[in-house]
Amino acid sequence: MSLPWRARAALLVCCGTLFLGVLDGTALNLALPSLQRDLRLTTPELQWVATSNALVRASLTLLCGAIADRYGRRRVFRLGLAVFVVGSLLCSVAPDAGWLIASRGLQGAGGALMAPPALALIANLFPDAQRRGRALGTWSATAGVSAACGPLVGGVLVQAAGWRSVFLVGVGGAGLLYLGTRLLPDGRVDGPTRRLDGLGNTLAALVLVGFTFALIDGPSRGWTSGAVLTAVAVALVAAIGYAPAARRRPDPVLDPAHLAVPALRGAVLSAVVAYLALAGFTFVNTFYLQQVRGFSPLETGVLTLPTTVGTLVLANVSGRIVGRRGGRLPATAGHLCFVASMALLAVVVTTDAWLPVLLVGYLLLGAGMGLVNPPATNTAVNSLPGERAGVASAITSASRQIGTNLGVAVLGAVVVSVLAATGQPTDDIARVAAESGDDFTTALRVAYGLVAATAVVTAWATWRLFRPPPARKEVVADADLAAPSTATPVT
After folding, report:
1. Among 61-65, 113-117, 242-246, 455-459, which range has the highest average pLDDT?
2. Please, what is the end-to-end C-alpha distance for the chain in angstroms?
3. Angle at which helices 328-348 and 262-287 pack, to 10 degrees?
4. Which of 58, 80, 139, 488 is the most buried (most CB within 10 A)?
5. d(C-alpha 109, C-alpha 61), whole Å
6. Exposed / middle / buried, residue 236 (Cβ in 10 Å: 0-12, 13-18, 19+)
């Protein structure tokens, strides 16, 4: 029996928001050099532009899930879409760094409001298990298609109309989707809902913001500067205070007891490191291809397609393995692909590196993402009781945003620190990459080597922590099951 037209149209609305979010992130990656040049951004400001979306999403995702359960999923979804439109519009007219960073954060808030209720709304639309499975397959396929289209569409937009056009596409598309939200069910939760944990969410956000500030601003301000030390101190105090605060709350935003489950810890670690590798690579590689090698934004988008292809192909393979044998093997293999990719790039990346070898490294990175994503999600969801599966899904989704945030912050800090050690100025990374390609590629080799070493440890930990899922029916996984994140991730 065919699906009712109303359900199909509502599914299109949910998937459309995912498509726009991925497209926005991948296109922005290609625009970073021209954006830095046009707005005269310093390197830390550029990092904040790239990571502010993911930082806000990571800080708010768990809280917004509880808000959606309490106030209605359609209502919160529509609010998130409206916030995303406003944030995109403000980004498109940003005159300076502060405006753009704040607007990107507003986009992230909109994404955080949309993401948690989206899959729950799909479940409301398709109560039949078989139809729900097909709907979720459509959702995951949308993420993959948008990731595949993103580099090409972004390259065309940036090259033809400039970086501001990236955000204007989001404004128009989201505006049209907003008209279709009336087709969505209300999505209210029957019975008692989770209480909001404002204190816990604030403490968790302080941890993320404090460490991110230290990593991004540390190289320019000085690692022992008052601002950096204060940020680290605030983050440490918040981290230490979170567990006692959570024990006193009936519904903490993140129950520390959940992370006592080895499989969930493994899934979180796997997701964080995978997205750290992808986001960090995407951030620095954009400057390598455009500034060091001289490729246009469109050519850069084409050259990075092997990463997307590897993800799409291996995600299907990994999903089948997870269904038959559990997530340990594909997740471990995925991190070994990261080791191979980053080690290869650390050896070969130079100002005139042979492109086919670079493309092999890009393909291996995508293969790692494709292998890691399905087991990270499914292992997390099946590591907690069925009634807490939504919490586990939200935790892994937030982990991806944390990894994305850390990738830009950590690899950016490594590259800037190495450049400073070689005597290069670090306030304009695009100019340094264009004028001192040898020093920039030296910094890239150090950064890629660090990621490769991290992936080795993570592969070992993944093999130890992942456990075969218990013999029970799997529940809905999260939005990024079969598709990569972006440096400014899915909204």
Report:
1. 455-459
2. 32
3. 30
4. 488
5. 9
6. middle
As a whole number of angstroms, the distance between CA 3 and CA 128 comes to: 11
Q: How confident is the model at residue 20 (pLDDT cuts 50, 70, 90)?
A: confident
221: left (phi over 0), alpha (psi -120 to 50) or beta: alpha
CA distance linking residue 383 with residue 468, whole number of Å: 9
Q: What is the DSSP letter of 257?
A: G
* Whole-number Å distance between alpha carbons of 177 and 193: 28
pLDDT at 236 > cutoff 60: yes
The arrangement of secondary structure in 5-183+253-465, i.e. its CATH architecture, is Up-down Bundle (1.20)
92 touches 226 (CB < 8 A): no
Contact at 8 Å (CB) between 367 and 314?
yes
DSSP secondary structure letter of residue 387: G
CB atoms within 10 A of CB 422: 13
CA distances from 355 to 358, 359, 446 (A): 5, 6, 20
Question: Measured at the alpha carbon of residue 275, what is the angle toward residues 258 and 153, in degrees to the nearest 5?
Answer: 135
Q: Range(s) for CATH 1.20.1250.20 in the chain? A: 5-183+253-465
pLDDT band at 137 (very low <50, low <70, confident <90, very high): low
